[in-house]
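Q: I'm building a small set of examples for a reading group on sequence design. Run inverse folding on the following structure and report the sequence directly after it, with nothing in between.
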């Protein structure tokens, strides 16, 4: 595979530290995964998707940053569509409120607060909240549920403008997305009150490599974090990692608790094999794509194949392995009636699954397989077969 960045793959400078990089994998010139088309034959814009690793700071990243305004302009992603996300956020917030006795005199902040799926839990506990998110649709939903939201791309300047405002700052699934992580962390450090806590959740590079989750590599995900790369970045802004948890969410995520405590604690997770896994990743992806294509061809022999979840990773999986679902169901109203770029499949309401009853349906949003399987029970009862494509194609048993 080759992309328009291939020539730069070893000359580009690391966007975090300016160090030299090595090529990890090229996934070609590909459409923006969340840029669903309004009509079937709309023009599709494609951008290079080439992953490199910095030799100096170890940060794994895409070479090209697509303009955030292009990426997140009409962003159709609403976190609250996934109960799993809301529950996970709710449990975390309740735990933090209890452990830290958070209440009316505190202030909870989230950067990339989306539709308020996390901060709403704080508001419910009586803790004042402030969210930062540039996407208008999700921010409207957040405001409607009482989550005050500033519609900006958060960076150091925004953080300094709110210096000392936060008892706790969350960065949930946002450090992978930002053009300049150092600027974001500087802004967070500025907002933290003395004794304040910074909680990060982000997909874990080691989990991505281990399960070959190549479909989670897309333009919105500029960074693929390991603790090895995150730790020095936090430290450069005076923050220490006090604790780390590994979560199953999104195929394997890191949850990092950091503060200015200088506790001397150096929480860690095993990452010694990451460089070796990066060495073989490009070949792993080729094997995986071949496996997926062969499996899909077999499914198609039995009639229509539908998809469940018009997630960004659905576009990536389908375009990489040449999968062509007849249609894709998704509960997000903003995605319905639109078309997946380069996939030629329309996104429709989940009720279409039982109405059209295709022989097979593949859960593209495999990170929410349990939640989706529960919703697709009638489809299965009526004889439909439900599959997950990752880490390897397998049928979901009832
Ligand atoms: P994500 O993996 O990028 O979070 O996207 C998951 C997609 O799946 C999102 O478009 C919402 C959709 N979805 C459903 O349609 N039904 C569901 O039950 C769940 C959990 C997600
Ligand atoms: Zn390339």
């Amino acid at each position: 595979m080759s992309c328009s960045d291939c020539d730069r793959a070893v000359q580009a400078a690391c966007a975090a530290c300016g160090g030299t990089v090595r090529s990890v994998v090229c996934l070609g010139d590909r459409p923006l995964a969340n840029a669903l088309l309004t009509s079937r034959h709309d023009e599709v814009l494609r951008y290079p998707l080439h992953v490199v690793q910095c030799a100096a700071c170890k940060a794994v990243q895409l070479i090209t940053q697509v303009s955030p305004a292009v990426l997140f302009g009409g962003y159709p992603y609403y976190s609250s569509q996934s109960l799993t996300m809301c529950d996970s956020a709710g449990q975390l917030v309740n735990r933090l409120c209890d452990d830290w006795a958070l209440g009316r005199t505190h202030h909870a902040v989230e950067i990339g607060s989306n539709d308020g799926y996390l901060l709403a839990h704080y508001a419910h506990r009586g803790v004042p909240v402030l969210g930062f998110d540039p996407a208008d649709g999700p921010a409207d939903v957040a405001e409607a549920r009482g989550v005050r939201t500033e519609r900006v791309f958060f960076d150091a300047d925004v953080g300094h403008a709110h210096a000392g405002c936060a008892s706790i700052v969350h960065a949930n699934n946002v450090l992978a997305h930002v053009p300049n992580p150092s600027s974001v962390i500087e802004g967070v450090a500025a907002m933290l009150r003395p004794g304040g806590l910074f909680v990060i959740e982000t997909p874990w590079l080691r989990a991505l490599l281990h399960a070959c989750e190549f479909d989670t590599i897309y333009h919105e995900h500029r960074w693929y974090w390991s603790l090895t790369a995150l730790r020095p970045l936090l430290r450069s802004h005076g923050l220490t990692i006090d604790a780390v948890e590994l979560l199953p969410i999104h195929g394997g995520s890191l949850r990092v608790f950091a503060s200015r405590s200088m506790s001397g604690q150096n929480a860690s997770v095993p990452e010694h094999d990451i460089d070796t896994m990066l060495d073989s990743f490009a070949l792993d992806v080729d094997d995986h794509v071949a496996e997926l294509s062969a499996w899909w061809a077999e499914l198609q022999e039995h009639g229509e194949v539908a998809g469940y979840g018009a997630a960004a990773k659905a576009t990536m999986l389908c375009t990489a392995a040449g999968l062509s679902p007849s249609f894709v169901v998704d509960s997000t109203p903003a995605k319905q009636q639109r078309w997946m770029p380069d996939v030629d499949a329309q996104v429709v309401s989940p009720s279409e699954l039982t109405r059209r009853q295709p022989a097979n349906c593949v859960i593209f949003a495999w990170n929410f397989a349990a939640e989706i399987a529960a919703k697709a029970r009638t489809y299965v009862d009526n004889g439909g077969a439900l599959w997950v494509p990752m880490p390897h194609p397998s049928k979901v048993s009832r």
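The radius of gyration is 21 Å.
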